[in-house]
Design goal:
hydrolase; 6 helices; signal; N-acetylmuramoyl_amidase_3; N-acetylmuramoyl-L-alanine amidase activity; six-stranded mixed beta sheet
Amino acid sequence: MKLFTLKKSAVQLFAALAILSAALGAVCGGVAHAQTVTAPVVVIDAGHGGIDAGVCGKSTGVKECDLNLDIAKKLKGLFSRAGFAAVLTRKSRAGLYGLPTSGFKLRDMKKRREIIRESGADMVISVHQNFYSDSARRGAQVFFDSSSEAGKELAVSIQSCLNAMDSATRKVNPLVGDYYMLECTDSPSVIVECGFLSNAEDEKLLLTEEYRDEVAHAIFTGALEYFA
């Protein structure tokens, strides 16, 4: 916990210097000086991919993996423009497992873990879509590892911003999740289930560019507020 406290302080310093640098540049026409501070690393994981489509929309059959990738790319753009070092685990529709042979899922997950660890991630956000037997269930839900207080704080911050969206229909609390992707690093990690593809209204919203933009911005804002 002490190690991450130091990391969080460094991110706060980075953000403060970035704002100060922008202000000085506007006044003096000078060059920004925040380059001397190492940019925090945010890993954005687009779940599934390749032959692993994830869940599919009940109404249209839209693939979860495609929605995940689109939202992940939007997040990468938001974080990059804010000065963070944004890393995607999956950059295309292909999976990360190599050949589609037996054991592909485990190879895919291990590759994601490798990318996260080699990046020196300060934060990990894994993007997914939900599916449930009760088609009335809807809305975005954030999961965190029970052993990570920092992960819980990040989840609460992101969930709060998702709940505040104009289109949010269900106000929920983040939940504990026992998932592989939450245990790849000691840095705060969350899984964001952006909506239920088993619900017709959620599926309809997720098919629109505007809603995916709104979800990405809410996740991004929640992450920034966590570091505030």
